[in-house]
Design goal:
The chain is of the alpha+beta class. A hairpin with a 2-residue loop joins strand 26 and strand 27. The protein is globular, with a radius of gyration of 31 Å.
C-alpha cells in the first residue's frame, strides 16, 4: 500500500477574489463553490399549467450562512426525565431537553402545557369544494387515482352514463373528462405548483465546441419548503409523527432500542447543536430526507430515462414512509445531459454532468436556508403551531448515486477512508467534511483521486447548507447494496462460478438445472414470487432478488460445500435481522456475530480461486450498518426500495398515461393532480366526511335499511391492512363453496378420511371439556354425541396479524390468505401449511406446531358456531434448528398404526401461514415435480424462516 502524500507548499491564487491556496485542487474546489461555471439563464418559473420555462433572467445567487465551528457535541442536560410508554410501562424514553416541540400560537409565542389548539376557520360538514358532493369527489378519485382511465375511455363511460339517465331527465356528474380535470385542478389545499429553471455550461469553450456546451438544461421542481409545510400540516400524519429526538429503553434491562428515525443518535446530536442557540429552544427539528435515482420508463420510445428527486421528513415514522401514504413526495426531475459517444467519457463533460447535479440540488433546496438558522412557525396536523428548525438529513441512494452525491471515486467507500483495494481494513477512519476540505486544500487532484478516492474538482451540494456533512448523511441501502448487489450480483454468481470451476461446464449445467428445478418446485406461499423456469431470466428486478433470497438456500444445499451454505445462512440472517422494525442492543451484538460468521465462511470463495479479494463496496457497506442503525434508527425506513416503489406511482404509471410527446410536462400535471386528490381525501377524512361508503351514506339519508356487501376483494394471497394495530385473528372466507360436501359423512368421502366423524367428536370434546384430560373415546356419546348436521366448506381463511417489517398498513397490520382448495388456478390442488399455537407459554417454534390445512369448514352445534380446519400434523426433527441452515426441520406425522396424523382444530389456534421447503439433499429433483406436489413428494422439510420477515421473527 502506497504512503499517502505529505502536504505541499506551493500557492495558487483565485483571480476573482484573490484568495490563495496551496495547490490547484483547492483553487478548483473554491472556484466551483464560489464562482460556479454554470450560468442560470432563467429564474424559477411558477407554471400552474406546466408549460415551457419562461426565459426570464433571475438572481441565482444563494444566500450564504456561516457554518458552525467543528467540535464535540454539546453535553446532554442533566434534567432529562423518563417517560414510560407501552403496555405495562414496559418501555421508557428520554426526550431531548432542548428541542421539545412545544406548541405555540401563530405568532410563535409558546403556549402553556395542555393548551388546546387555536380553532381553524370552521368548514361546514357538507363543504366538498371544489366538488359538489361526496359522490363527485369519490368518482374523480377512483377514476384518476385508482382506475387511471384514459381521457378517451372516460368520455365513453360518461356518455354511457348519460344515456342511462336520459329517461330520468338527469345528467351524469361530469359531462366530459375536461370538466373532471378542471374540478381536480381547482383544489387549493396542498397545492404546490411546479417551477423550472434552466442552466447551461459557462466554462472554457473549446475552439471546436461540442453541442453539449451550448445546450440548455431544464430542471423542474416544486418548492420543497412548501411541500414540507404541507406534510407537517397533514392530519393523516398527526398521530404518526415524532416532534422530539428521543432515546428508547427497555424498562427491565435498561437496554437501548432503535426504531424510527428520531430514535437515532444523529437527530439527538443535531438537536444538541441547534439548542445552543437560545432562540431555537422549544422548537421541532425537521430533518429533510432526500433520495434520487435514475429510472427507465420505456424501452420502445426515444427519451425513456428520467431522474426523479424525492423528499421525506425524519419526523414521520417508518410505517408511514413504507406504507406509501404520501410520506415520500416527488419534488423534482433533474437534468440528464447527453452527448455523443465520442465525448461521453471526456473529463470536461463528466465533470459538468456531476457538478450540474450538485448545483441543481443546491438551487432547489435553498428555500430551507432561513429556517436552518432561525425557527419559523408552522401549522401541524394536530392543529397546533410549532416553531421548526430545518436540517439536511440522510440521502437515500444506491451505490452509484452515493458516489455521485459524496463526490468520491467509484469502488471507494462513501463513509470511510479504507483503500479501494483493501476495503476490509478495520482501522480505516470515517470520512468527514472538515477532513475532506483540508485534503482538498492541501493535495493535488491526482493525489486526492488515487490516495483518498476524492473527486477534488466537485463540490457537494451539502457544503452550502448549515450543519450538513454529506459523508455522515449516506443512508443504508438494503435493496441495491445488499439484496441486488451482494446477494444476486456477488454470491449467486459466485456459486455458478464455483460449480463450473469444480465440475466443468457439462456437469455444472446439470447441477444448475437441478437448482432451477428445486426453486421451481417450491410450494406456493402468500407473497412468494414464482420462478417456473428457475432463476434464468434476463431482466432482474429488486423484487426478483428478494424472492430468490427466500428459497435459494435449500436449493443449493447438497450441491455445494457446507462453507458456502453457511455463508448464505449468515448473509440471509444479516439481511433479515437489519430489516426488523425494532432493533435492540442485543440485536446489534447478534449483528456483529452474524457478520463475523459471514466474513469467516465467505473465505471459501477465495481459497477455491473464485475471487481474488473481497474489496467490494457493496459487501463492505455491511460493516457500517451497526453505526448507521445507531445514527438513523432501523434501516427499513430509509431503504431505496421506498424510492424504487415510488418510481412506479410517480414516474412509470404517469408516463404510461401520457401520449409520449413531451411526456414530462404531462407527467408533472398528473402528479400534481394525484397529490391534490390525496390531500383532499386527507382533509375530508380529518373532518369525518368519508365514513362508510357513498351508497351507505345515501341510504342513511333516505332512511333505507339494506344489507350491503362492503367487503373488498383481496389482491391475491396477501395485502396490507389500514387502521391501527389490533390483536391477531383468523377468519374463514366470506363465501362458502356450494358445490362441495354438505355433511361430515360426505366430506369424509371427498377427502378420503374414514374416521372424520371421530375427529369431529374429539374436537367437540375438547371444546366442551377443555380442562378434561381424558381420552375423547372414554367420554360417553350421550355426553358428547358428535355432529351429524349440515356444514359449510370454505376454500380459504385469512390471517390478520402485526407484521410491520413486511408489507403493511400504517398501523403495521398485514393480512394473508391460507388456501385449502382442491383446485387452484387450474394448476392442481393447493393445501397450505400454517403455524398452530400448541403451547402459548413457550416462544418461537417450541410453542407452535406446523400443520397442513386440508379443509376449512364450519358448523353450528348446541347454539355455538364452530369455525374449524382439518389438518395433518408435522413432527419436528430435533429440539433445535438445523445447525447448517439455521432452519427447523419437520416431517409428516403418522399415528402408531402408520396412518396420517389428522385432527380437527379451531381456527383460533391458527397463527398464520407457514412455508415448507423440501430437504432435497444430494438427489436430483424429477422434472415432473410441480409446486402442487411439493408437500406430498418429499420425506422432510425445512420450515422456511426466510419466507418473509415476520416468519424470521417467529420461527426461531
Amino acid at each position: 500500500m502506497h504512503a499517502r502524500p505529505m502536504v505541499g507548499l506551493s500557492r495558487y491564487v483565485c483571480k476573482q477574489c484573490k484568495r490563495s491556496f496551496r495547490n490547484r485542487s483547492g483553487l478548483t474546489q473554491h472556484t466551483h463553490a464560489r464562482h460556479p461555471r454554470f450560468s442560470t439563464i432563467s429564474a424559477p418559473t411558477d407554471n400552474s399549467g406546466v408549460g415551457d420555462p419562461l426565459a426570464e433572467v433571475g438572481d441565482d445567487a444563494a444566500a450564504d450562512f456561516p457554518h458552525p465551528e467543528p467540535g464535540l457535541d454539546a453535553e446532554t442536560d442533566d434534567n432529562i426525565h423518563a417517560v414510560f410508554i407501552g403496555p405495562g410501562d414496559s418501555l421508557f424514553r428520554n426526550y431531548h431537553p432542548g428541542l421539545t416541540g412545544q406548541p405555540c400560537n401563530a405568532n410563535g409565542d409558546f403556549l402553556p402545557d395542555g393548551t388546546q389548539p387555536e380553532p381553524r376557520q370552521p368548514k361546514p360538514p357538507d363543504d366538498w369544494s371544489p366538488y359538489n358532493s361526496r359522490l363527485e369527489f369519490e368518482l374523480a378519485d377512483f377514476i384518476y387515482t385508482r382506475n387511471q382511465m384514459s381521457a378517451a375511455n372516460l368520455n365513453i363511460l360518461l356518455e354511457l352514463w348519460a344515456a342511462s339517465l336520459v329517461e330520468a331527465g338527469a345528467n351524469p356528474i361530469f359531462s366530459s373528462y375536461k370538466e373532471m380535470y378542471r374540478t381536480i385542478d381547482k383544489t387549493e389545499v396542498g397545492d404546490v405548483k411546479w417551477q423550472s429553471f434552466t442552466v447551461k455550461y459557462a466554462g472554457d469553450v473549446e475552439t471546436d465546441p461540442v453541442p453539449w456546451m451550448h445546450d440548455e438544461y431544464d430542471i423542474w421542481f416544486r418548492d420543497p419548503h412548501e411541500v414540507v409545510q404541507n406534510m407537517l400540516a397533514n392530519p393523516e400524519f398527526a398521530k404518526e409523527m415524532d416532534y422530539r429526538p428521543f432515546r428508547e429503553y427497555d424498562t427491565k434491562s435498561s437496554t437501548r432500542r432503535w426504531q424510527d428515525f428520531m430514535s437515532g443518535d444523529w437527530a439527538w446530536r443535531q438537536a444538541d447543536i441547534i439548542a445552543q442557540d437560545p432562540d431555537c429552544l422549544g422548537s421541532v427539528f425537521v430533518p429533510i430526507i432526500l433520495g434520487s435515482d435514475k429510472t427507465t420508463v420505456s424501452v420502445a420510445t426515444g427519451q425513456n430515462d428520467y431522474y426523479p428527486l424525492y423528499l421525506s421528513i425524519g419526523n414521520i415514522r417508518n410505517n408511514v414512509r413504507r406504507a406509501h401514504r404520501n410520506g415520500v413526495v416527488l419534488i423534482g426531475f433533474l437534468a440528464m445531459p447527453k452527448t455523443t459517444r465520442e465525448h461521453a467519457n471526456k473529463d470536461n463533460f463528466r465533470k459538468f454532468r456531476r457538478q450540474l447535479f450538485h448545483s441543481s440540488l443546491g438551487r432547489i433546496l435553498k428555500t430551507f436556508k432561513p429556517g436552518m438558522v432561525k425557527p419559523e412557525v408552522v401549522l401541524f396536523g394536530d392543529d397546533h403551531y410549532r416553531r421548526v428548525v430545518y436540517g439536511l438529513g440522510p440521502y437515500i441512494a444506491d451505490y452509484e448515486e452515493q458516489a455521485l452525491v459524496t463526490c468520491i471515486v467509484r469502488n471507494w467507500c462513501p463513509r470511510c477512508l479504507a483503500y479501494r483495494n483493501n476495503l476490509d481494513d478495520d482501522n480505516a477512519l470515517h470520512r468527514c467534511r472538515d477532513h475532506a476540505e483540508m485534503l482538498i486544500a492541501e493535495f493535488a487532484l491526482d493525489a486526492l483521486w488515487n490516495e483518498y478516492g476524492i473527486v477534488g474538482e466537485l463540490v457537494p451540494f451539502t457544503n452550502d447548507f448549515l450543519r450538513a456533512d454529506i459523508y455522515e448523511l449516506i443512508a443504508p441501502d438494503l435493496l441495491h447494496q445488499i439484496i441486488k448487489g451482494a446477494f444476486k450480483d456477488h454470491l449467486v454468481e459466485w456459486v455458478e462460478k464455483y460449480l463450473r470451476h469444480t465440475h466443468g461446464d457439462a456437469r455444472a449445467n446439470e447441477i444448475l438445472d437441478d437448482i432451477d428445478r428445486r426453486i421451481a418446485a417450491v410450494a406456493p406461499f402468500p407473497g412468494l414470487r414464482r420462478f417456473p423456469q428457475g432463476r434464468h431470466f434476463k431482466q432482474w428486478t429488486g423484487d426478483d432478488s428478494k424472492a430468490l433470497m427466500k428459497v435459494y438456500l435449500p436449493a443449493i444445499e447438497g450441491h455445494v460445500p457446507q462453507e458456502i451454505v453457511r455463508t448464505f445462512r449468515a448473509f440471509l440472517e444479516f439481511c433479515y435481522l437489519v430489516r426488523r422494525n425494532v432493533l435492540t442492543e442485543k440485536d446489534l451484538d447478534d449483528l456483529d456475530e452474524i457478520l463475523a460468521r459471514f466474513y469467516r465462511y465467505r473465505e471459501v470463495f477465495k481459497t477455491t480461486g473464485i475471487v481474488a479479494n473481497f474489496s467490494l463496496p457493496r459487501q463492505h457497506a455491511m460493516k457500517h450498518y451497526k453505526q448507521l442503525i445507531q445514527l438513523f434508527g432501523v434501516p427499513n425506513g430509509l431503504c431505496s426500495s421506498i424510492t424504487e416503489s415510488k418510481h412506479v406511482k410517480a414516474v412509470k404509471k404517469p408516463y404510461r398515461r401520457t401520449n409520449k410527446y413531451h411526456a414530462l410536462g404531462q407527467m408533472l400535471l398528473i402528479n400534481q393532480r394525484l397529490d391534490k386528490l390525496a390531500t383532499a381525501r386527507a382533509d375530508f377524512e380529518s373532518r369525518g366526511m368519508l365514513e362508510g361508503t357513498c351508497l351507505s351514506t345515501v341510504l342513511d339519508q333516505l332512511g333505507e335499511d339494506i344489507l350491503l356487501n362492503t367487503s373488498s376483494l383481496s389482491r391475491g394471497d396477501y395485502e396490507d391492512v389500514n387502521g391501527p394495530r389490533v390483536e391477531a385473528h383468523v377468519c374463514l372466507a366470506r363465501s362458502r363453496q356450494r358445490n362441495r360436501a354438505a355433511t361430515i359423512v360426505a366430506l369424509a368421502d371427498e377427502l378420503h378420511i374414514p374416521n372424520l366423524s371421530e375427529l369431529v367428536r374429539a374436537f367437540l370434546v375438547g371444546q366442551l371439556y377443555p380442562d378434561d384430560n381424558h381420552d375423547p373415546a372414554d367420554i360417553p356419546h350421550l355426553e358428547c354425541p358428535g355432529y351429524e348436521g349440515k356444514i359449510s366448506i370454505y376454500n380459504s381463511a385469512s390471517s390478520t396479524f402485526y407484521a410491520p417489517s413486511d408489507l403493511s398498513g400504517v398501523g403495521g397490520m398485514h393480512r394473508e390468505y391460507i388456501r385449502a382448495a382442491p383446485t387452484w388456478r387450474q394448476e392442481g390442488p393447493r393445501y397450505d401449511c400454517a403455524f398452530v399455537i400448541t403451547d402459548p407459554e413457550l416462544e418461537g417454534m417450541r410453542g407452535m406446531d406446523v400443520a397442513r390445512m386440508l379443509c376449512f369448514f364450519s358448523f353450528k352445534a348446541g347454539g355455538v358456531f364452530y369455525p374449524c380446519a382439518i389438518v395433518r400434523w408435522f413432527d419436528r426433527l430435533g429440539d433445535a434448528p438445523d445447525e447448517l441452515t439455521g432452519m427447523w426441520m419437520v416431517r409428516p406425522s403418522f399415528t402408531p398404526n402408520h396412518q396420517r396424523n389428522l385432527a380437527v382444530i379451531h381456527i383460533d389456534t391458527i397463527f398464520r401461514a407457514a412455508h415448507l421447503i423440501p430437504i432435497y439433499g444430494r438427489e436430483f429433483v424429477p422434472r415432473e415435480i410441480a409446486p402442487c406436489h411439493s408437500y406430498d413428494a418429499f420425506y422432510g422439510y425445512y420450515v422456511n424462516k426466510f419466507a418473509d420477515h415476520h416468519a424470521f421473527e417467529i420461527a426461531y
